[in-house]
Design brief:
A hairpin with a 3-residue loop joins strand 3 and strand 4. Helix content is 48%, strand content 16%. It folds into 3 domains: 178 residues, no CATH class; 127 residues, Ribonuclease H-like superfamily/Ribonuclease H (Nucleotidyltransferase, domain 5, 2-Layer Sandwich); 88 residues, no CATH class. The two termini are 52 Å apart. The longest helix is centred in the N-terminal third of the chain and has 46 residues. Strands 10-9-8-11-12 form a 5-stranded mixed beta sheet, sandwiched between helices. A 4-stranded antiparallel beta sheet has the order 1-7-6-2. A 3-stranded antiparallel beta sheet has the order 3-4-5, with helices on one face. The chain is an alpha+beta fold.
């Protein structure tokens, strides 16, 4: 498990210019190398070596710029796929409207949207990135921040990946037992090749410092930032920490977790699958925070999940989520989803491994539908809590059978809709039931968190499905309906 420890550096007045020089040269070479890579020029490493004459830093810079460029190419591929999907959706809608009425006033807007999407896809190309982020660059253009402050934010970090030599660790950025960070400079003059900067270790980081001294390898990133109108320096040390033995397992039950873009729901169940308690953890205004603050806020919320599992002395069961998205929401929800899939899931797994909490992943198919259709009658909770309950039961090995009232409905109307799942699928009947309710125009699965409305919609759906099959007057009812109430 990768763990990062942050130590604050305290350079002397003589060492501050040397440290700032490393920040400047390193980030200048990174921008130069990215420009060469973007223009597809050859011999990038040799050209960078002519500038700084320091091979370890050049190797690290090449890794960083190639990673950034690959991320851009991945974004370009996904963006083209997304635009193509939108074009197909709009084209299908145009054909559907034309079949109904060729003079429909909506066609003008649809054709305009289709033309806009096609132009955006045609002119979609890679553009150079802005080092220092676009918001800061715009502030610098408007002169709301000074040039020096913009450079500090732009040239905010450097690192150096070194190889082990003669059994020794990375010699370019090395943690010494005397609580000093040994940094290699760009100078070739004797006595100026290295700089030793002291750092502090608080009482919470003593164990991490001892692990670092015995670790086989680690990586160091030196960062600087303005805190309370003061320029401060930090060392972010990442190392591989062995996982602890799981203290909290699934012997006495489990905690089910349902991830949503604006809240988490936790449900505590015993070993027999019975509902015990629940808790909801909401994210207020997560989209309005900057990246670092969002990460801190997410970590604070994940700590509540960890404390809940430790309090219940049980492991946690989560959904095995995939985020292949071919459509887009609003920018607020997109940011929340991005935070969820890039930070919160991995952060939860790391914190669980650190505290000895067992984690089990299950298939997320039809959890909300099963919770709404099967347990809303008895538990009287919202869809998200019921979905967490189904996740916990599924992780413990319980199979959700279809209730008898739903089996009776499917037995009578099973031939109306063609099943979309294979007979071997355990969710075939749930999918068929979901399609049946959609066919009759009732979808209680996405109703508000009012269980009264949910139950009313279910009753309407069942009655509608069965009333559509009522026999004509004078014909006795079949055996399936004999002696049963309207709501089953």
């Amino acid at each position: 498990m990768l763990t990062t420890a942050i130590f604050r550096l305290y350079p002397s007045p003589v060492q501050v210019p040397q440290l700032n020089e490393i920040f400047t040269i390193y980030n200048q070479m990174k921008r130069k190398g990215y420009k060469l890579l973007f223009n597809a020029e050859s011999d990038i490493q040799q050209k960078l070596m002519q500038i700084c004459h320091n091979n370890p830093y050049v190797n690290t810079i090449l890794i960083e710029i190639k990673t950034k460029f690959k991320q851009q190419q991945t974004w370009l591929t996904k963006r083209r796929k997304y635009l193509q999907h939108k074009i197909e959706v709009v084209s299908e809608k145009i054909e559907k409207v034309k079949k109904q009425n060729q003079k429909d006033h909506r066609l003008k807007g649809l054709y305009s949207l289709l033309s806009s999407l096609q132009n955006r896809k045609t002119h979609l190309i890679l553009k150079p990135i802005v080092f220092g982020t676009k918001p800061l660059f715009r502030q610098r253009i408007r002169r709301t921040i000074s040039k020096q402050e913009f450079k500090i934010h732009r040239d905010a970090s450097f690192s150096c990946i070194g190889k082990m030599q003669n059994g020794l660790k990375n010699l370019n950025l090395k943690i010494l037992p005397t609580m000093h960070l040994k940094i290699r400079t760009f100078s070739k003059k004797p006595g100026k090749k290295w700089v030793l900067i002291p750092f502090t270790v608080n009482f919470k980081q003593i164990s991490q410092f001892h692990i670092l001294m015995s670790a086989e390898k680690y990586s160091v990133v030196v960062k600087r930032q303005i805190v309370r109108n003061e320029l401060r320096y930090y060392a972010h040390v990442t190392y591989d920490q062995p996982n602890q033995a799981n203290k909290y397992t699934f012997e006495n039950g489990a905690v089910g977790l349902d991830f949503n873009h604006n809240h988490l729901t936790l449900v505590n169940v015993d070993s027999t699958g019975q509902f015990l308690s629940y808790q909801t953890i909401k994210f207020y205004n997560l989209h309005s925070y900057r990246k670092d603050r969002r990460d801190d806020f997410a970590s604070f919320k994940i700590d509540k999940v960890i404390n809940y599992c430790i309090n219940k002395q049980k492991g946690i069961i989560i959904e095995d989520l995939t985020f292949t998205q071919t459509f887009s929401y609003s920018w607020r929800r997109n940011r929340k989803l991005s935070q969820l899939k890039t930070s919160m899931l991995s952060l939860l797994e790391r914190k669980c491994a650190r505290h000895g909490i067992a984690v089990r992943k299950v298939n997320s198919a039809f959890t909300t539908i099963i919770g709404a259709l099967k347990y809303a009658w008895s538990l009287n909770f919202s869809n998200h809590i019921l979905a967490s309950y189904v996740i916990a039961r599924r992780g413990l090995g319980f199979v959700e059978d279809l209730p008898a009232c739903y089996k009776r409905v499917l037995a009578q109307v099973g031939g109306i809709l063609k099943p979309r799942l294979k007979p071997s699928s355990p969710y075939r009947q749930w999918a068929q039931l979901y399609d049946l309710f959609q066919y009759y125009g009732v979808t209680p699965f996405w109703s508000p968190d009012s269980t009264t409305n949910l139950k009313r919609n279910l009753l309407v759906a069942l009655n509608t499905a069965l009333d559509g099959l009522n026999p004509p007057p004078g014909v006795p009812p079949d055996n399936l309906r004999a002696g049963l109430l309207a709501y089953g």
